[in-house]
Amino acid sequence: MSLVARHLEANGIPTLIIGSARDIVEHCGVPRFLYTDFPLGNPCGKPYDHDMQLSIISQAIALLRTATTANTTEKAPYIWSADNSWRDDYAKVDDSNREELARRGEERRRRQTEDKAEGIDRVAMIADG
Amino acid sequence: MTEVYDVSYMERTRDYYRAQGYTTDYRWAQNSETPFTPLSKPMNECRVGVISTAMPDTELGRVNRRIYSNLVSPIPESMHTEELSWHKAVTHTDDVNSFIPLEQLMVLVDEGGIGSLAPRFHSVPTEYSQGNTIDNDAAEILERLREDEVDVAILVPL
Description:
The structure holds two protein chains of two kinds.
Chain A: H1 2-10, E1 15-19, H2 22-28, E2 32-35, H3 50-66, E3 72-75, H4 86-89, H5 98-117
Parallel strand pairs in A: 1-2, 2-3
Chain B: H1 9-19, E1 47-52, E2 55-56, H2 59-63, E3 68-71, E4 79-80, H3 102-111, E5 116-117, E6 120-123, H4 130-147, E7 152-156
Parallel strand pairs in B: 1-5, 1-6, 1-7
Antiparallel strand pairs in B: 2-4, 3-6
């Protein structure tokens, strides 16, 4: 998505990304980025929290108005929960799932080989985090 | 209790791929310079376009990952997110407005904070191949936004 933003911006359309994977977006480099420090999935605010969602998009619009240089990041002023254990949980690899992940990898490669034989060459990132 | 830190998604993804038997690490896009285009008019005169990595929750959208253009009204009740990398153990994507800000932008149109919302929003697939994104999808999205006559674009990856 960051690559799309860069292409639009280079062709005259100002852009802003709202996202939660800060390291990936900033590694790529984008013009304007509103960072929501939430688990991946709800960068525009918690599900069904209309006030928070409106506040976050309002901050995004303000950032579009005020940013004057590329690589401008702002952070939304919300936390997901007092318990931060979700941060350790994403795409975790430990002894409890090592064998299962190895098996899943084999299965994924087998499926990709089949897809390729059928002419399907578009591959998504692994998405079972 | 876990301390507060920005989750390192690149490192987690790399380790996750390795655990699944992949021997070549994914290389995330990195650039030394970033383009910047100033706004050409005040936000309250701008037409806003929205782009999501979620696919439409239709028969085609569920099986065929590609660019789709979807109407903003009525706001879709659901989007297909199953194949995307989001934190399925701790949250859900049942509320479309939590990752595609259509309802919120409609409020801002009514309040005069933005000029208008483009009549359609676009789905763009996440891709392992950066070449596919740059050479095909980004160019196609640009063309569709020009058709929509948008002044600014808000992109929301899940």
